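Anyone up for a design puzzle?
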């Protein structure tokens, strides 16, 4: 562990106070939520904050609330374990709970927060692809007030977001899912549940009256590009006709061909690209099954 430089520490009790502190301290001030990523990075000397701003004393950031007729709102400080075990999430957006259950160990999931995971902007995030295919929007609050954007537009690169100094992620809104829709997230890691994804695939399909023709399709890949990658050509294939075995295979090839995986000490780029194809087929078939009425196991 590298020696840490002295830093200031704050525990604001309101969003306004937290925003003011972060704005005054500038780019070297970091919000602290679960700390599962921030603190190890500090110990490794990857970052040297001038200040940490603990958000845990701010009321209302860890709520999960249904907005009748509209969808579900999840606070940014909601733990990954709370997302995984929430009856509200499981009943309306079960794939998000499913993805949460794949993140890290149980101990990590009880500390890590949804806002912290997305704000970290890891290309290998399990939560970001799932939120994106669910067309989730993120709310932030900063020096210039509140704003909202698609989660897809928040992440701009590995470890970077479109947030400006002083802005804090406050919540995520998941629109109500239409009937005859299904989603799935599948991933490959070296150690089940204890390693970040080598490859992840989130898929969403909306059908016409439980038919096999998609009216909406979403595919987002993890760990194969600098940001969670929309597989747009694959989506176009899926919307081109009945979801036959041949069309699913064609969409999977399109997703693999359009992916941009790197080679590193964990896996080669060619292996990751082939796994995109394999996992894509699995995710699409599972999403189709669920759109046709198949249940997600409890």
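Challenge accepted. My sequence:
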């Amino acid at each position: 562990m590298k020696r840490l430089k002295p830093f200031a520490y704050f525990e604001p009790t309101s969003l306004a106070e937290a925003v003011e502190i972060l704005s005054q301290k500038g780019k070297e001030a970091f919000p602290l939520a679960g700390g599962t990523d921030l603190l190890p990075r500090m110990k490794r000397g990857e970052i040297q904050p001038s200040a940490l701003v603990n958000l845990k004393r701010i009321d209302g950031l860890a709520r999960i609330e249904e907005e009748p007729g509209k969808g579900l709102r999840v606070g940014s400080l909601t733990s990954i374990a709370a997302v995984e075990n929430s009856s509200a999430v499981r009943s309306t957006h079960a794939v998000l709970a499913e993805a949460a259950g794949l993140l890290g160990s149980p101990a990590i999931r009880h500390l890590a927060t949804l806002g912290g995971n997305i704000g970290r902007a890891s290309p290998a995030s399990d939560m970001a692809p799932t939120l994106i295919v669910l067309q989730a929007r993120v709310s932030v609050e900063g020096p210039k007030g509140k704003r909202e954007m698609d989660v897809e537009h928040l992440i701009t690169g590995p470890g970077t977001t479109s947030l400006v100094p002083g802005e804090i992620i406050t919540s995520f809104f998941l629109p109500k899912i239409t009937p005859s829709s299904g989603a799935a997230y599948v991933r490959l890691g070296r150690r089940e549940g204890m390693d970040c994804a080598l490859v992840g695939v989130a898929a969403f399909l909306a059908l016409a009256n439980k038919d096999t023709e998609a009216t909406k399709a979403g595919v987002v890949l993890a760990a194969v590009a600098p940001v969670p990658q929309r597989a747009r050509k694959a989506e176009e294939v899926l919307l081109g006709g009945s979801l036959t075995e041949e069309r699913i295979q064609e969409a999977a090839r399109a997703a693999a061909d359009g992916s941009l995986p790197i080679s590193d000490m964990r896996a080669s780029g060619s292996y990751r690209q082939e796994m995109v194809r394999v996992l894509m087929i699995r995710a699409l078939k599972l999403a189709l099954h669920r759109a046709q009425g198949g249940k997600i196991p409890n």
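A detail worth pointing out: The CA atoms of residues 7 and 50 lie 5 Å apart.
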